[in-house]
Predict the structure.
Amino acid sequence: MTLGQYQKMSNQKNTGLKGSDLLAHFEDNWQTDIGAAIIGKERIVLRGRDLLSECRDFSWMELMVFAITGKESPKLARLLEGMWVISTSFPDPRLWNNRVAALGGTARTTGALALSAASAVSEADAYGLRVTTRSIDMLFRFKRELDAGGELGELITQEFKQYRVVSGYGRPLVSKDERVKPLLEFAKSIGLDPGPYVKLAFDIADYLSNSRYRFQINVSAVIAALMADEGVSPENLSYFGIFAFIGGMYPCHIDAKNHPEGALFPLSTSRINYTGPHIHRTWNKGHQQ
């Protein structure tokens, strides 16, 4: 595609039209430079490449990287694979999103439904994908401010004032994150030396660990820093993370499906500490023959 063709296509997208005129413009008229399937002509186009001939040697993650960014990067694809293996694919149904997958299994729903619901709740504010995207956004902001002469302690203080949290630092239940060391070792093993954002992430960790907060770095900040050093935007990181937990969800769904139906984490009523008024209830046991 020539530059002139691309500009023409972009102009067709940004028509300036509104309302019914906008809809009329796009009726039977979807202009795209991203992808299309030309059915029957054996041509599937993805970002100007023929998927069947030019992309067939891609790994699945390489295809994801190219589809999202338009760039070929086997190293980034391998880094993402390692991240999701080390950081997020834990086969434990007690984890919030895995529990949804397991509930689908114990209710005998399909894997597609169970894992779709589990993936949706992975975008948790407190400890899900949004933590990582907020962390990479914060690292980009901090780096700009520091390059302009800012002071790290002031930036961290302002972050607490505005958001009440420094994303990627601290962890529920335990302080140390066992995933940080193996993830850094993996990154090094594929030829990625710590860049400026990884250094910044650990500078923040040093500051926090010596402050009254005593927060330690968690894997979200490390993922964000590695991605920032690779030039990944917060939006693209959110795309990459959609399937991050899938590897741990499959076994949870399968395991629950192989157990008796409805047997996942039952809770007897005797364990409920009810403090309300006493209400006498008569339970209907059904029609007696």
User: Anything to note?
Assistant: Residues 129-147 form the longest helix (19 residues). Residues 9 and 32 are 7 Å apart (CA to CA). The beta strands are 35-38, 43-46, 49-50.
